[in-house]
Amino acid sequence: MSLYLYLGKLKDGREVAIKRFHEETEKTIQQFMKEIEILSNLHHQNLVSLYGCSSRHSNKYMLVYEYISNGTLTQHLHESSCNKLSWLTRLNIAIETANALVFLHDSGIIHRDIKGSNILLDENFAVKVADFGLSRFLPDYVTHVSTLPVGTRAYIDPDYYETGRVSEKSDVYSFGVILFELISSKPASLMQGTERVALAEFALSKILNKELQLLVDQSLQISFNKNVVEMITTVTELAFQCVQCPKELRPTMKQVLETLQGIRKGKWGFSQIT
Length: 274
Known about the structure:
Blueprint: E1 3-9, E2 15-21, H1 26-39, E3 50-53, E4 61-66, H2 73-78, H3 87-106, E5 109-110, E6 119-121, E7 127-129, E8 136-137, E9 145-146, H4 158-163, E10 165-166, H5 168-184, E11 189-192, E12 195-198, H6 199-208, H7 226-242, H8 253-265
Antiparallel strand pairs: 1-2, 2-4, 3-4, 5-8, 6-7, 9-10, 11-12
Helix pairs in contact: 3-5, 3-8, 5-7, 7-8
């Protein structure tokens, strides 16, 4: 799907991000309408705000969002021009992303495209989850909906990819990959020798082989702060649980959020989330 992003300014001085869909296809129109449907009805401090859209009579499909100035999580983790994020900043990003997903799930919505490039950061590194074009509504009386798998492969729940059944636990899997990125500073898809492997697969092999030191970004432990090391170890265990298959073994996003908040407060030991 082709789209262009522009920076603009409203008459009141607010800077805005403008997303313009270049191709007028059934798929782009559906995604355009889905973003409007979701973001015009949901408001949360960790979701990007939609200010407006092009007229229904226009032949151009454009969405106008609040402008988030500090780029994406992907940029801060994987681009050399960005300063290293501290462990506490990473933990707060995880908590605020989880908070957004709990809100979406409580509202009956599965995001379906949680990834680092859809987690925007403001100047204080507060999270704004974006891009709802692939999201689906999940009625209260069902546990999943059947649909063709969409999203970025390295973040997609294997159960969803194989069966076409998407559920809230599909977002949990994607969030688990985000946790592994925050822990390791590695991308969701990486080279291992001559082969490209998913980070989740790489991380699981290191955890099961008790080679955690080969997964964790060593710069995070450089101070040898015992509390930081314990928090990283516990978050790694949580990420491990988030990517379990089958999906029934995974926690809910509400459980994930409560665990992360407990880790930040120092009230959850390694054994307490199992």
